[in-house]
Design goal:
Elements (H helix, E strand, L loop, with lengths): L8 H6 L10 H13 L6 H8 L3 H8 L2 H23 L4 H18 L1 H9 L1 H9 L6 H19 L7 H16 E2 L4 E2 L3 H12 L8
Keywords: DNA-binding, Transcription, Transcription regulation
Protein name: TetR/AcrR family transcriptional regulator
Pfam families: TetR_C_36 (PF18598)
């Protein structure tokens, strides 16, 4: 990284406009995340101005505004699942079920998430559930990694291949959590809990 004290004026003028050395993809996500958590609209033009970037530069990284929002939402899910797994006390299939229940509860109770869905219902549903979008593939991968950890660390024997099981869990979660008729949050986590327990091979689910 160059410091300003050692860069002459000619070097400064040759730097590509809209891409200062201090601006990164991660900073774009962090600015968008702050707006999301504050219940504000994620304004790509405003973020670009704050970071000294052009909007085109951000779109080169993320493809679109949906890509930025998807990165924020996927990151929140991944961080929450990791925290829930670190705090769990159960093992095996019940470990997976308990972690998923905490994550599902967050998805329905979290105020910024609910406000986002209220403000942008149609785009929110599309960003979260599109199989080729920025969120669902990462969530499937994150759940698969949880299943693999339970297999390797706890001796859990999943009834399906971990990738297929993770995909089924995520798609079922979408059906129970989101209402596509009004593009809102249905939040039927208790029934979802029962179905996920059956998928994981737990005959009687007890919420923790």
């Amino acid at each position: 990284m160059y410091h300003s004290s050692v860069i002459d004026s000619s070097q400064r003028t040759t730097r590509p406009p809209g891409r200062p050395a201090s601006a990164t993809r991660e900073q774009v996500i962090e600015h968008a995340r702050k707006a999301f958590l504050a219940g504000e609209r994620v304004d790509i033009q405003a973020i670009a101005g704050q970071l000294g970037l052009s909007r085109a530069s951000i779109y080169r990284w993320f493809g679109s505004r949906d890509g930025v929002l998807g990165s924020v939402l996927a990151g929140e899910f991944e961080a929450l699942l990791s925290r829930a797994d670190a705090r769990r006390r159960s093992t095996g299939a019940r470990r997976i079920l308990d972690v998923l229940y905490r994550v599902n509860r967050w998805m329905t109770d979290n105020e910024p998430f609910r406000r986002y869905f209220e403000n942008e219902p149609l785009s929110g549903l599309r960003i979260l559930t599109a199989s080729d979008g920025p969120v669902q593939p990462l969530i499937v991968r994150t759940v698969r990694e949880l299943i693999v950890r339970a297999t390797e660390e706890d001796g859990y024997r999943p009834p399906l291949e971990p990738g297929l099981l993770a995909y089924a869990i995520v798609r079922l979660g979408e059906a129970f959590l989101y209402n596509d008729n009004v593009a809102g949050i249905r939040g039927d986590i208790d029934r979802l809990h029962e179905v996920q327990a059956a998928l994981l091979g737990i005959p009687e689910a007890i919420k923790q």
